[in-house]
Amino acid sequence: MRRAEEMERVAERVNACTRCQLWQTRTNPVVGTGSVSARILLVGEAPGYYEDLKGEPFVGKAGKVLDELLESIGLNRNDVYIANILKCRPPGNRNPLTDEIQACTPYLDAQLELIQPEIIATLGNFSLAYIFTKFGLKPEKISKIHGKVFSVRTIGGFKKIVPLYHPAVAVYNPGMKEVLLEDFKVLAKILPPRGQIEL
Ligand code: URA
Ligand code: SF4
Predict the structure, then answer these.
(1) SS3 letters for 24-42?
(2) Domain ranges of the chain
(3) What's the confidence (pLDDT) of residue 195?
(4) Ligand 2 centroid, distance to 79 Cα (angstroms)
(5) Cβ 126 under 6 angstroms from ligand 1
(6) Residue ranges around ligand 2 (CB below 6 Å)
(7) What is the helix, strand, coil percentage profile of the chain, to 5?
(8) What atom in ligand 1 is closest to the CA of residue 44?
(9) pLDDT value at position 155?
């Protein structure tokens, strides 16, 4: 399958990447997981401690929250694709730096290009800032726009962008989990039944 092969190519490039300093301190790069024909792409921030060890996104506490959120709308990890802005872990889980984001986002762009998701859900501020800017939207405060649906027109067709809080905010805060659960309902609502969108 072509998409799978193209994703393999991206993974090979990431594995060999030295475009920013983070390759020096990473254990494993985290390319992403899920279906290359997913209709929803979830974009997180960067690998943390466990992701770096395992080479997979969202395998720590925030990942458990993410699994619950997906399950709440009848989805699992194989129904979506999960990627991050940065493919390598920043030491100590510090915030991504501007030059790291600039160096790494061509890989996310390539993933977007090959998956062609109908819906992009951003997880957290760095993801929101990058995706909004990329699609010509003005980033606003997550507290103001979380769970709202932004439609954009691209060469590949219309897409919906939904900014969400990062699942990590709900790890020790049940109130935020409730907010995320409500916002995930929006994702379920805007995903039309598969048959209806095929021409
Ligand atoms: N947080 C993220 O943003 N991404 C991961 O993969 C794990 C935690
Ligand atoms: Fe390359 Fe991205 Fe890793 Fe930096 S974070 S080394 S740009 S793959």
Answers:
(1) HCCCCCCCCEECCCCCEEE
(2) 2-190
(3) 53
(4) 26
(5) no
(6) 14, 17-20, 22-23, 29, 86-88, 100, 103-104
(7) 50, 15, 35
(8) 3
(9) 87
Residue holding tokens 């986002």?
105
Q: Output the CATH code of domain 2-190.
A: 3.40.470.10
Place of tokens 């980033």: 139
pTM above 0.85, yes or no: yes
Question: pLDDT of 50-85, one tens digit each?
Answer: 999 999 999 999 999 999 999 999 999 999 999 999
Q: Are strands 40-44 and 150-154 parallel, antiparallel or unpaired?
A: unpaired
Alpha-carbon gap, residue 68 to 19, rounded angstroms: 35
Rounded distance between C-alpha atoms, residue 56 and residue 59, angstroms? 7
Residues of the chain with pLDDT > 70, as a percent, come to 97
The per-residue pLDDT for 198 is: 43
CA–CA separation, 40 vs 70, rounded Å? 11
